[in-house]
Specification:
Layout (H helix, E strand, L loop, with lengths): L3 E6 L3 H12 L5 E7 L3 H11 L3 E3 L2 H4 L5 E4 L6 H10 L3 E5 L6 H14 L3 E4 L6 H11 L6 E9 L13 H4 L3 H16 L5 E9 L25 E8 L4 E7 L8 E8 L3 E3 L4 E6 L2 E6 L10 H12 L9 H20 L3 E2 L8
Parallel strand pairs: 1-2, 1-4, 2-3, 4-5, 5-6, 7-10
Antiparallel strand pairs: 7-11, 8-9, 8-15, 9-10, 11-12, 12-13, 13-14
Helix pairs in contact: 1-9, 4-5, 5-10, 8-10
Length: 352
Amino acid sequence: MTKLKMGIIGVGGIAQQRHIPAFLQLQEKIELIAVHDVNESRAREVAEEYGIEHVVTDYHEMFRYVDAVTICTPNKYHAEISIAALDAGVHVLCEKPMAMTTKEAEAMVEAAERTGKVLAIAYHYRHMKESQAAKRAMVTGEVGAPLVTRVQALRRRKVPGWGVFTNKDLQGGGSLIDYGCHLLDLSLWLLDGPKPVEVMGKTYNQLSKQPNQINEWGTFDHETFEVDDHVTSYITFADGSSLLFECSWAANIQEDVSHVSLSGTVGGLNVFPYELYQTKGNALVTTRADQIIDEDDPDIPQAENFIDACLGEAELVVKPEEALRVTRIIEAIYESSQTGKSVRLNERGGRQ
């Protein structure tokens, strides 16, 4: 069997906690052969720990050895490295978000189309068992036409105090572009990609600008905190449906919330935990997760789907044009907050 030769660009936490362990469980299909990081000593430590042959000091050099790369760098470099890899004939799995801006994301899609190489974005929430069950319910019509979608991605006092998460120049934003993007992508996928026509958004960072922070995920400098720690938005679509969206790194709430629910013309569903709400005869019927699905780690199916797509054996679960749609909405939310006005979008997702 042909094995895919894989390189990792950026060997920080997400690479070591998510991607490398997943690939190592799929060694019948893939061979990890190269790593790169701006911190060369860290790259060498990771290579030694996982038995990876090549450590390169210039990521372009990696393209000589590999069929595909996984990009785990700060957001600022996603587009640059993805396009360089695609143009070198190398498939790409890029960490979320796709890019910092719509223009960058569009350039990535164009590069994938031009080269015919696979470009996947790591929105791993789609691969969760609950999400897969929810998608089946939507596809089979058990919810009917969507009317209202409610999304909350809320953490109680968990600003990531490590790495560059609060660096706007390197990341482009905070809670929205880092965490909220996951559930925004998931909800748009469940809705089958409706065309957004208007976005109203508001971002905040007052909580994290206060001194004497209580934060469960490391320390950060409140005086230089420059990204959003809380975001609200209201999105309307061309089909008449709407989406209420909220995310936060530092909410003053009782406990963390990951919530996606949809109300449709026939039924409704909640994703976490999975429940399907329907009427049958004269009864209200609820189907719960433990009746249809088991717990599972989304990292393995995400990695396997990318590998199989590169080998021509599967269709991508997360297509680049779908990830581009998420970036367009994120950019519109930020723009709406900055201008204090709603952002109208045309059929391509651009500004009217």
